[in-house]
Design a protein that fits this description.
This is diguanylate cyclase. InterPro entries: Diguanylate_Cyclase (IPR050469), GGDEF_dom (IPR000160), Nucleotide_cyclase (IPR029787), Rev_trsase/Diguanyl_cyclase (IPR043128). The protein is mainly alpha-helical. The protein has two domains: 280 residues, no CATH class; 160 residues, 2-Layer Sandwich (Alpha-Beta Plaits). Helix content is 73%, strand content 6%. It has 16 helices and seven strands. Strand 2 and strand 3 form a beta hairpin. The protein is rod-shaped. The two termini are 68 Å apart.
């Protein structure tokens, strides 16, 4: 006969044992909090990724702005050195010292020093202050600039005719070498700027091209000025250098034409471009070509024409500087706008994250308050009812019709349980009273023989575990029958009550005092050895002998008692009947020895 597999009861979990175990381990409250935490964690993770992306964009714009500002400063510093070189050349070409030129030269020197200081500060802020290559180049350039200035000042202090041509040429070459030395710094800083953000590559390249255009035009001017000052033609070497410089200018001009269209949508760049076309590409370049031809074909004009040529050409070179500054301004404004946009996005993301988090948290707390907490409260109330605790008060019901109905049902169940508990408590009280009456002596209020038998089982078991002996003091009132016969049973009852009172007062709080039967009493003692037990018995005997009862005729009545003391063995097999037998034997010996004394039973084997 085929046996069908046992089907699970309705509502019982089914599935693999490990899955069922996991389901039973998690409470409803735990599942609720786990799911809530997961939802909040996922939401915060998504918002955090969005915020992280915006923050990275913000950091990129910030770094790019720092690097581009640093690159702009190093180009301005280099161009300032070129401008100072042109003013030095103009001052040297003067037949008489010019206060105006001297003031302009000193102002340009202060400007260049300030640019060097600003460049060092920006290097420190960008983390490049410890770059040995950049720092060495800057220190060398600044020292060389100081030396060139000192040499120029010495030449300025000499009369025109006494100024050696070679020293003037060397001074100009020294200024050109300083600019060439700054190229390493320009290239390094420009490369780092591009590495920080490839989107600013065109800005770096375009502004470098404009700066080179301005520099090569200035060098052409410096090459043509000395022959013009001396009224001589260009040498073959000078002609080759001039042709090379103008050819480089043409190449850079073509390169710039391919780079500028990116910025031609900007009005500022278009205006600067138009000014540069007019003042530089038309005027300066044409003037340089014309001056070169003049210096090649015949002797140039006298010296004052050289000074005039420099002073007229130098300001026109600033049109290139304005074009370069316009490109920088557009790029920097774009980076600042991008940084501001990302900053606002970060703030918006943060606000939205906080708002979403608060909304989710509010929803979680509301769900817990209106659903989870009432269910857990109902669960705890039902468990408390099952354990017999009916003291819970559900006078205030939670919101929601379903939850109120649930708690009304629990209140009905609680009321029914309370009625059952009242009946159960009354039955327990009655049972306890009956048991107490059955184990208590009605006359003396001491525990009776039945109660002694019940308590001694627990007493012996406890002391067996603790490894201690149990002491028993058994005593009998001497000639008690004679008291009853001579004075009546009422007097005898008074004697028994007085003895019970005296014994309870003398004994310790944890000693068990009981009436064994008739005029016989017992004292069960824990934790005393034989001498201490005998001492306690003597103490009780003297207390009984010292008490008196006043009879109706005013005469005092005294009694005595005989004691038998025994100490159990420290052994699990030691029993209450054995201890009674030992104490009873000792009591018999005390009576035979003349009564009113304590006899100690020999130690148990």
């Amino acid at each position: 006969m085929e046996v069908l597999p046992e089907q699970p009861c309705n509502g019982s979990p089914s599935g693999p044992p490990d899955k069922i175990s996991m389901q039973t381990k998690l409470t409803l409250n735990q599942k609720f909090w786990i799911s809530s935490i997961l939802v909040i964690a996922v939401s915060c993770t998504l918002a955090g990724q969005w915020a992280r992306s915006n923050y990275q964009a913000y950091q990129l714009a910030q770094r790019s702005l720092k690097h581009l500002t640093l690159y702009q400063t190093v180009l301005l510093t280099t161009t300032g050195i070129s401008t100072e070189r042109g003013l030095m050349l103009a001052q040297m070409s003067q037949s008489q010292p010019s206060d105006h030129l001297q003031q302009a030269l000193h102002a340009q020197r202060r400007y260049n020093d300030q640019r060097f200081d600003r460049l060092n500060r920006l290097l420190s802020q960008s983390g490049l202050a410890n770059d040995p290559l950049i720092q060495d180049r800057l220190k060398q350039s600044r020292r060389a600039l100081g030396a060139a200035r000192a040499e120029a000042d010495r030449l300025f202090s000499q009369p025109r005719a006494a100024r050696p041509k070679q020293r003037i040429t060397d001074s100009l070459r020294q200024m050109i070498a300083i600019v060439d030395g700054m190229r390493t710094v320009i290239d390094d800083i420009g490369t780092r700027a591009i590495e920080s953000n490839t989107r600013i590559t065109r800005v770096v390249v375009t502004t470098r091209t404009i700066t080179q255009l301005r520099e090569y035009a200035g060098r052409s001017l410096a090459l043509l000025a000395p022959p013009m000052m001396e009224g001589k033609c260009l040498t073959g070497e000078q002609q080759g250098q001039s042709e090379q410089l103008l050819g480089r200018v043409n190449e850079l001009q073509d390169l710039l034409e391919s780079q500028l269209p990116t910025y031609m949508n900007e009005g500022l760049v278009r205006k600067a471009r138009a000014d540069a076309n007019r003042r530089y590409f038309s005027d300066v370049y044409a003037t340089l070509v014309e001056a070169r031809l003049q210096c090649m074909l015949n002797a140039p004009s006298p010296m004052y024409h050289a000074s005039e040529f420099i002073l007229q050409t130098q300001p026109k070179l600033q049109s290139l500087e304005r074009l370069r500054d316009a490109v920088f301004q557009i790029a920097i404004e774009g980076l600042r706008t991008s940084r501001e946009v990302t900053r606002r996005q970060i703030m918006l993301t943060t606000a939205m994250t906080i708002a979403i988090g608060l909304a989710l948290l509010g929803q979680v707390l509301l769900t817990r308050r209106t659903l989870i907490a009432p269910l857990l409260r109902a669960r705890n109330d039902i468990i408390a009812l099952a354990e017999g605790n009916t003291g819970c008060n559900t006078a205030t019901y939670p919101s929601g019709v379903e939850m109120r109905e649930l708690f009304r049902a629990i209140d009905i169940l609680r009321s029914s349980q309370q009625r059952r508990n009242i009946l159960e408590r009354e039955r327990e009280i009655l049972t306890t009273q009956l048991q107490q009456q059955a184990e208590t002596d009605g006359l003396t209020g001491l525990i009776n023989r039945r109660g002694l038998d019940s308590q001694c089982q627990h007493l012996f078991a406890r002391n067996a575990v603790l490894g201690r002996a149990v002491g028993l003091i058994m005593f009998d009132i001497d000639h008690f029958k004679q008291v009853n016969d001579e004075h009546g049973h009422l007097v005898g009852d008074r004697v028994l009550q007085a003895v019970a009172h005296i014994v309870r007062r003398v004994c310790r709080g944890n000693d068990i005092v009981g009436r064994f039967g008739g005029e016989e009493f017992v004292i069960l003692v824990e934790g005393l050895d034989a001498p201490a037990l005998r001492h306690l018995a003597e103490k009780v005997r003297r207390a009984i002998a010292g008490m008196s009862i006043t009879l109706e005729n005013g005469q005092p009545l005294t009694v005595s008692a005989s004691f038998g003391v025994a100490l159990s063995r420290i052994h699990p097999q030691s029993t209450w009947p054995q201890l009674i037998e030992m104490a009873d034997t000792a009591l018999y010996l005390a009576k035979n020895a003349g009564r009113d004394r304590v006899m100690m039973a020999p130690p148990a084997d």
